[in-house]
Amino acid sequence: MLPLVETDYKWEKKIVELKNKRVTVTGGAGFLGSYIVEAFQEAGAIVHVARSKDFNLVDIGNVRKMLKKTKPEVLIHAAANVGGIGYNRLYPADIFFDNVMITGNVLKVAAETTSLEKLVIVGSSCAYPGEVTGRLQEHQLLEGALHPSVECYGFSKRAAVIGSKTYREQYNLNSIVLMITNLYGPRDKMDPTESHVVAALIDKFVRAVRSGEDTVTVWGTGKAVREFLYAGDCADAIRLATQSYDKPDLLNIGTGIDTSIKQLVELLVEVTQFKGEIVWDRSKPDGAMLKVLDVSKIKEELNWESTTALRDGLAKSVEWYHTVLDSEQTTA
């Protein structure tokens, strides 16, 4: 059986030509999915978006219908039931069940589909141990317990890694798993209780500026350290890995740049021009105190690194959100 973490096996690199390639993207109408769709369309692929309203992937029959209808040569699995720490606390059972079932169904049906050339599974840094010193390297996936704040989601992403390796071994399924860090950008779900940290904070700061509020409350102490990757950059990396990466080992996609929550807040104060006071709600969790990916492998394998600076990406996101709120006011 192939090891569940990095191997020493030698694999022949095969370049996937995307021009006129039939590509199906689960979750393609979602936040990251919409950027993936654009990246593959720009590369000349014929992209089909699998929407949850058309195919509830928790039901394996719907997964079979999706692949029968779209006939993909490449399947990008980006669908997930996912949110921030607040969302995880509200719906842990739903998150666990939906994600384990969806990914299991996708793997099983992908292995049955002889016309499918490649399956790309979008993973998450939440699958890594919660208490690791230093940047998270691919071989460390199973070297510790998940952080309690993301356990329900992180376990499902560990299961995806194990599933990908076992289906490769038993059914020769060409499947890879890409471990994604914290994303942000225009089109994200802006919700202070259910979104990931950047979107939740953008919502708070933009609304505070627009309504003239003099305080913004932020969860935790501000000491937790993360990295933040612009969604468009992430989609570009996924496109490149689809074309050029076939190894069974994990591949991290991130910036490798440490940013504390306090530093993120300071950038948002600057970008939104908020003039009030920041109140740190220390009764709320920080999550893991350090979660930053080691990205040396993707630089070595694909010669890729992110190109959007955090301040620039935040500025684009804030500008987009003002446009969304202006539109809502106009139609109200």
Short description:
The protein has 332 residues and is α/β, with parallel strands linked by helices.
Would you kindly provide a written description of the structure presented here, covering whatever features stand out?
The chain is α/β, with parallel strands linked by helices. The protein folds into 2 domains: 22-184 and 227-253, Rossmann fold (3-Layer(aba) Sandwich); 197-225 and 258-290 and 309-331, UDP-galactose 4-epimerase, domain 1 (Alpha-Beta Complex), CATH 3.90.25.10. 42% of the residues lie in helices and 14% in strands. The protein has 10 helices and 12 strands. Strands 2-1-3-4-5-10 form a 6-stranded parallel beta sheet, sandwiched between helices. Strands 6-9 form a two-stranded parallel ribbon. Strands 7-12 form a two-stranded parallel ribbon. Helix 5 links the parallel strand 4 (118-122) and strand 5. Helix 6 runs parallel beside helix 8 and helix 8 packs across helix 10. It is globular and about 60 Å long. The mean pLDDT is 93.
SSE diagram, text form:
Layout: E1 22-26, H1 31-42, E2 46-50, H2 60-70, E3 74-77, H3 85-90, H4 92-112, E4 118-122, H5 151-171, E5 175-180, E6 182-184, H6 197-211, E7 215-219, E8 225-226, E9 228-230, H7 231-244, E10 251-253, E11 259-260, H8 261-272, E12 277-281, H9 296-302, H10 310-331
Parallel strand pairs: 1-2, 1-3, 3-4, 4-5, 5-10, 6-9, 7-12
Antiparallel strand pairs: 8-11
Helix pairs in contact: 1-7, 2-4, 4-5, 6-8, 8-10
Specify the structural class: alpha/beta
The general outline is globular
Number of helices: 10
Beta-strand share of residues: 5-15%
Oligomer: single chain
What's the β-strand tally?
A: 12
* Strand line-up across the major sheet: 2-1-3-4-5-10
